[in-house]
């Protein structure tokens, strides 16, 4: 799997190299997955460093049916089904993971690029990785959908910007005081202000920092309905909660700055594992983990062009582990993977979309997960106005800056708390950003809760780190 090739959270490839072929969007949906797929699995072994670019001859095939409620069923050739307890989930619009016969399978969807014309092929995959649930026996696999549940869509070619717009995005950002005044005049829930440092960024750099162009989902899931059980459980929770102030202790690691690299997914992921380690060990393990090792070495993400917390805090941390910041310091740019054999690796397990699968999230489930297990990675849509957030409870104003081009992005961050404003009664989430501690409310922001503001209640991700002993 070549890196830097997919549109992702923080993803941004095409803009920097507008005429290079490698920048392509896999842009697939839940409905594309439904139906029957056939996979061929290559010979296995105990080597997890295996390169699946060329999977080699198949030694096994399996046929799997993917249905609603994340059910995956293995089909035998005589039509008799077995292992009806299989599980699958979509991973954003980029790929999927399924678990059958105590093996996990993960692959990105296939795409095809010719010049600037790129098309997602949602009934096929790039070669993917499979291993048993314990992570011992590894193999590569390929596959395609042989019977769609619905009529397959025509492949949609990606939409590209004009070259004039590409050039415009390479120019520097210029503060527009009128825009800031307009935001402050339009509402009183939050304050907008000037960030002088933005003038050092290009428009493109700011967009990448905010999650990356085209990271926005065309068919993102809405929050799932709340079950009676969940409602009852959530009603027992405290009215407000903040992992920075639990029994007088702070369980959240310091705010960091990702710079112009589209690595929000790595910061959100490491931030979750750091905080949850503190929670699990009553603050006796206060580590800072390395986002750069993810950017430079991660097989399941695309470096400074983006990635997903589900695959990083979750799958990568389970399959390969993560290392300490001091062993692999942050560079804020793409670079080749250094030897990490001297770095001790820590692991996480039980990674999941909050609610169980992609599309099953909601406010109450997020509150329960937060209070019970610790901070979690969330993603939300960043609009032009958000860039000027200085404090208060953010709500998108619908205003946009006519002078500074911007595109809506999807940005990964860390949810640490929730509460209600005593004066206005407005409910909010408290969220840790990775834009330095002088941004927003000391590196944090609050955003309206209960209304899926900017899609923040649709795709939360959790994973459980495993503390190292000694
Ligand atoms: C891209 O697609 C357009 C419209 O289908 C076509 O005219 C053009 O030749 C294609 N360009 C390349 C480089 O394939
Ligand atoms: C993804 O596909 C949808 C249609 O399913 C389309 O509206 C959207 O523009 C596509 N996104 C990209 C980045 O090509
Ligand atoms: C957790 O740490 C705090 C502060 O060091 C200490 O007061 C408390 O007793 C610890 N709790 C447990 C259960 O060890």
UniProtKB/TrEMBL annotation:
One GO biological-process annotation of the entry reads: proteolysis
Catalytic activity from the UniProt record: Release of an N-terminal dipeptide, Xaa-Yaa-|-Zaa-, except when Xaa is Arg or Lys, or Yaa or Zaa is Pro
The UniProt keyword set, sorted, is:
Chloride, Disulfide bond, Glycoprotein, Hydrolase, Protease, Signal, Thiol protease, Zymogen
Family matches, as InterPro entries:
CatC, CathepsinC_exc, CathepsinC_exc_dom_sf, Papain-like_cys_pep_sf, Pept_asp_AS, Pept_cys_AS, Pept_his_AS, Peptidase_C1A
Which protein family is named in the record?
Belongs to the peptidase C1 family.
Q: What PANTHER family does the entry give?
A: CYSTEINE PROTEASE FAMILY C1-RELATED
This protein's assembly is summarised as: Tetramer of heterotrimers consisting of exclusion domain, heavy- and light chains.
The identity of this protein, by name, is Dipeptidyl peptidase 1
